[in-house]
Amino acid sequence: MPSRLESRTDWYNLKVNLGLPSLVGLRRDEIQTELQNSGLVAEKEARMRAAQISRWIYQKAAAEFLEMKDVPASLREALAAKFTISPLQVERHLRSSDDVDKLLVHRGDGDVYECVLLPYENRVSCCLSSQVGCPMGCKFCATGIGGFTRNLDAGEILAQYLMLQRLSPRRVGHVVFMGMGEPLLNFEALLKALALLHDEVGLSYRHITVSTVGIVPKIKELTKTGLPIHLALSLHSPFDRVRDTFMPVNKRWPVAEVVGAMKDHARKTGRKITIEYLLIDRLTDSLDQAAELAKLVKGTPSVVNLIPFNYVMTDEGFRRPEVGRVRSFRRELESRGVNVTQRVERGHDIAAACGQLAGEHQGRFARRESTSALPLASA
Ligand code: SAH
Ligand code: SF4
After folding, report:
1. How many Å lie between the centroid of ligand 2 and the Cα of residue 157?
2. If residue 48 lies in a helix (H) or strand (E), which one and from where to where?
């Protein structure tokens, strides 16, 4: 692990040939196979070179083969002619007044999505997208309102992490899948991305959070893998009659079923679960919902994370509750012994809410040549 990662932004302007196969997203053994098949490396050397290259890519967040100092110059050049490292380019970079960086990225096909770097005093976290858009149609969510385009592959997921790591002078030790998309609907790529983050980047599974809207069969499958990742459920109301009205998923897997699957996950993995709870004025913030929520989580190691609604224009005219109503809801939970946190809100001035920025951007994004150099992304 490098002791110090320089903050680098020069890679924005690299002329990357997005038409070449990229190495980000491949496991070390897959990189070895690529090297062998390319004919650039002798068979007996391939294993050692794959180990070096994967270290540069995943642990040092290298943007170019040129950076790989312990790889012979001739091989670096030959590799650069056949492969790219990352499949992604930065379309836009925004930095908020409170030091949140948001990147809008793409692989040259017009599908833009976003990832966010969140530095805290004691750690640095990042928020990654798993899909371009989302098919789940939650009515409060900019991503959901924009509809679904496609799944991201493991390379596109890892590349987000690595780009953010390049921006961060400190190690990005935490990952949350709370960007665009429903990670459990992109299960295979998610599992591969989790394995790469753990095996190649070196992150602890315990520092990775997967947030789901509640795809019950996939929660069960995740539980079966035994991976000690942190699972969060976007519940947003304990009542079917309320949840039904703004989260279509609830008609398929209602509250009791999804909360049951989450509790089972907690029991089998020994990991605390998080219940995310969106506070929408007069819809989800009533005290009877707080009381019911407390009943639901009772006896399960859990934390309820309150998220006051971030403004998105909706047909329903959803609004954020006043501070006093948020406080009352929180007190009601706490008085019933629930562990409560409240999402620390950051990055307001760069539209850090899920999918907002990419949504804004999609319409304006002109399909570009895959090899074009980018302007230094604007802040
Ligand atoms: N699809 C997954 C993960 C991505 S959304 C999920 O739904 O859990 C990440 C979180 O952002 C979810 O808890 C989601 O409910 C929340 N979110 C979406 N739109 C929001 C908004 N307008 N204001 C606040 N939180 C929002
Ligand atoms: Fe999709 Fe999550 Fe947004 Fe719902 S909240 S539409 S599941 S991204």
Report:
1. 17
2. helix 43-54
